[in-house]
Amino acid sequence: MQTSEWLRHCGLARVDGLALLRDVAGLSHAALLAHPETPLAAETLQRLETRAERLRAGEPLAYVLGWREFFGLRFAVSPAVLVPRPETELLVDFALDRIAPERGAAVLDLGTGSGAIAVAVAHARPHAAVWAVDASAEALAEAARNAQALLPADRAGGAPRLFLGDWYAALPADAPRFDLILSNPPYVAQADPHLEALAHEPRLALVGSRASADGLADIRRIVAEAPAHLAPGGWLAIEHGYDQAEAVRALLRDAGLAEARSLPDLAGIARVTAGCLRA
Ligand SMILES: C[S@@+](CC[C@H](N)C(=O)[O-])C[C@H]1O[C@@H](n2cnc3c(N)ncnc32)[C@H](O)[C@@H]1O
């Protein structure tokens, strides 16, 4: 069978079919477009079909491929971790704007999942000391694999330090006060109808262990305890739902954090809110 014929009959959106062909058949996008007559070997066809079946059953493309690009890096992802989203790159941009390239800042990523935020910051700011926490051992193992694959072994700030546990309680006694605390925590309300479409991703990543009617239970904890872990002048930046910005700004103010502000994503929707501990 030729690639164009497979694409026509695979029963997938063209963009997903092309992604499978690129990954499984090892063909470039340009080659697929220029040579639609390229024949597919029987063994390739079988591997394509296995993956196409998983996509047709609703599994996210990133789990089927086993990777997702985030901040220009290719992260390994499994169903144990949330698939990194483009809007989360806003948090990384926010962090990089506050760390000069040669500076040795202390950065904490709460709820690291695949390690997307922690590893992207560590990659772009080699001198930063990066700490990361997750309540899922499987997620931390994935983050460790990504850190090892994507960061140089002789990185100036060392390898990211990973801790298993419940938010700040996971940190060891010698943890520093952080210049930046970044988090994309669970923030989906327990009865949110969107959960059905997200059924393949871990519930701990979406709703958390403290399911709440407004989705803010974990954000409340992270914000309330932030002042005890921030260095003077340090920033807390949190990703949240499209309708939670005002509530998160209020939580930051209640916690005594200053300069509370929300940042829009590419669609103009406030998806990250930040505040700082006065110096
Ligand atoms: C929305 S996912 C974010 C993953 C990753 N940072 C990203 O942006 O792609 C939230 C993460 O928080 C973790 N988590 C949930 N509750 C937690 C808790 N109480 N303490 C630490 N991590 C927690 C989940 O296991 C999950 O990996």
From TrEMBL:
Keywords: Methyltransferase, S-adenosyl-L-methionine, Transferase. PROSITE patterns: N6_MTASE (PS00092). It catalyses: L-glutaminyl-[peptide chain release factor] + S-adenosyl-L-methionine = N(5)-methyl-L-glutaminyl-[peptide chain release factor] + S-adenosyl-L-homocysteine + H(+). Its EC number is 2.1.1.297. S-adenosyl-L-methionine binds at residues 111-115, 134, 167, 184. Substrate binds at residues 184-187. Residues 7-66 form the Release factor glutamine methyltransferase N-terminal domain. GO terms for molecular function: nucleic acid binding; peptide chain release factor N(5)-glutamine methyltransferase activity. Pfam families: MTS, PrmC_N. GO terms for biological process: methylation. Gene3D superfamilies: DNA helicase RuvA subunit, C-terminal domain (1.10.8.10), Vaccinia Virus protein VP39 (3.40.50.150). NCBIfam families: hemK_fam (TIGR00536), RF_mod_PrmC (TIGR03534). Methylates the class 1 translation termination release factors RF1/PrfA and RF2/PrfB on the glutamine residue of the universally conserved GGQ motif. Belongs to the protein N5-glutamine methyltransferase family. PrmC subfamily. This is Release factor glutamine methyltransferase. It comes from Thiomonas delicata.
